[in-house]
Amino acid sequence: MIQVNQVNKTFQLGDQPVHALNNIQLKISPGEYLSIMGPSGSGKSTLLNMLGLLDIPDDGEYWLQGSDGLALDTVPMDEEVRARYRRDHIGFVFQSYHLIPRLTAAENIELPLVLAGIPPDERKERLQPIIQRLGLEQRAGHLPNQLSGGQRQRVAIGRATIMRPKLLLADEPTGNLDSHSGAEVIELLEELNNDGITLIIVTHDMDLGDRAKRKIRMVDGEIVLDKSREQEPS
Ligand code: ADP
Ligand code: MG
After folding, report:
1. pLDDT band at 113 (very low <50, low <70, confident <90, very high)
2. Which sign does the torsion angle of CA 38, 225, 64, 229 carry?
3. Most exposed of 11, 37, 101, 205 (fewest Cβ within 10 Å)?
C-alpha cells in the first residue's frame, strides 16, 4: 500500500545543507501499526509529512494505493491532485491539535465533510456516531479553548478520520498531554487501527512507541532499525 524507494530530502539552513531524509526505503502494508522513534532532529516529522503528501521528496519514489487499488506514483502529482488525495485518504494528527478556535468541537470534526461538499443531512448522520465514539457528547458545542488537552486531541482525531481515510499519521500526538490523557488518546488511535486503518505514530515516548507492532528508529535522516514484533524473542 505504501512504498518508498530511495527518498532523499535536503533542507538548506543558511548555507548549510541538512539531510533530513537519507535514502529512505520503506514498505508498509494496509492495516499496519508502526511507530517512528529517534532523537530530535532525526527526520521523523519530515518523513511523516512526506508520507502525508505535505512534503515532496527531492528524489526517489513514493507510491500510494489509488482509489482503484492501483499503485500511484505521488512524486509527479500536481498540488491539486495531491490535496485531493490527502483529503480523501489521509488523516493527520499533530502535537498541538491545530483546531480552528472559533469553531465548536462538532464543527471542527465536521469541517472536512463541508470542504468535500457533502450535504448537511449526510454530514449530521456521519458526525453523530463519531462524537459518541470520541466520548464528546457533552462537549460537542464547546470551543477548543473550553476543552482539556485530551478532549482537543480527540476532536482532532475525529476531524482526521471523519473522511474514513486508509492512513492515519500522528506526529507526537501525546506530546502536550499528561500520561492519563495520553493513554486515552493512544487507546483511541489503536481502536481505529483495530478497525483497519493504517496507523503511523511518531513519538518520543518509549513506552508508547513500544506498543506498536512495528518500530522504526531514525538517526540523522536514516532508518537505522525497522523491527516487527514477530521478530522479537518472546
Ligand atoms: P524530528 O521530527 O525528528 O525532530 P525533523 O524532521 O523536524 O526532525 O527535522 C529534521 C532536520 O531537518 C532537522 O535538522 C531540522 O532542523 C531540519 N528541517 C526540518 N524542516 C525544515 C525546514 N522547513 N527548513 C529547514 N530545515 C528543516
Ligand atoms: Mg518532529
Report:
1. very high
2. negative
3. 101
